[in-house]
Amino acid sequence: AALVSATGAQAQEAPRSIVPIREVDIRPIGTPRYVIEVVVNGAPMVVGLDTGSTGLRLLPRAAARARVAPGGEAETYSYGSGVELDGRRVEADVAIGGARGRVTIQAIDRVTCVARQPDCPAARVSPDAYGLMGSGQPGRGFPAIIGIRLMSGRVDNPFRALGVRRWIVHLPQRGGEAGALVLNPDARDLAGFVPLQPGAANPRGTVAGCVSLAVPGAERLCGPTLLDTGAPGLTVLDASAPPRWQEGSRARIDFAPMRGGPPPALGFVTGDKAHGAHATFKPGGSDRVTIHAGTLPFYAYDVLFDADNNTIAVRPNREAGPAVVPLNQ
Predict the structure, then answer these.
(1) What CA–CA distance (Å, rounded) separates 189 from 211?
(2) Could you read off the pLDDT of 224-244 as tens digits, one per residue?
(3) Contact 96/161 with Cβ under 8 angstroms?
(4) Which residues of the chain fall below pLDDT 50?
């Protein structure tokens, strides 16, 4: 079957394929990042994998290596870290696993900080030493980033244009062997996944979730929850006074299933930075609680993104360790 890409072109459905996901530890701060290989105009490159953003975006050195065409309409994109990318929207030939096609990407000309966050990671290093997802560490990070969130943008998630309808993110455990990005999974790949309720009327790639300490009667904070491989750490935005969690406490995240059955949940230890369980509570910009769950859910669950139905589903990760474990399964 043909798919309609973000540019209106017809894209044939890509074959099932598996792309290795590799962990990279950003030193000296010890932040885990995850990468895949993407080929742009015939040039293979290591690309940061980000389920919390959209679009394939190349720093100038990567765009030059891929011989990206000059010109194009202006494009500006920013991240929660405050990093802002100024550049151009251009077309390029892109291959990811068995998926290949013509895709709109961003060729970055300049990396800055948004006005409200002038001390963002990009402000800490020179342009030549800056790498995407490098946490502001000189010489760290990657020449490109691929955002595969279930939402649209002017530089869109490239999977649609490549004929990819669904994808599974199986993140490696900390320090473990490579994980896997499964493109257009087959019926065996899809077995056991539980679809989750979207996070709001306009879900923007979130699911309905709650966080709480794992003790009877603990306060539950519930709202749209973002599963984000690009941002380790648990951040809760709440208009009320933020709760104080003592580090080393057992806590949990619960998800609302789309159908009946026990709600998928995961248990973790607060303050466990290695697994993205360092919890931060901030005043929110609205009355609604918003949860940025970061990488934490991926250590307990494989995550299925379904672009056809605009849904997210989870299945216990069989490699989950004792620090982050699926519950109620």
Answers:
(1) 29
(2) 999 999 999 999 999 887 788
(3) no
(4) 1-2, 4-8, 329
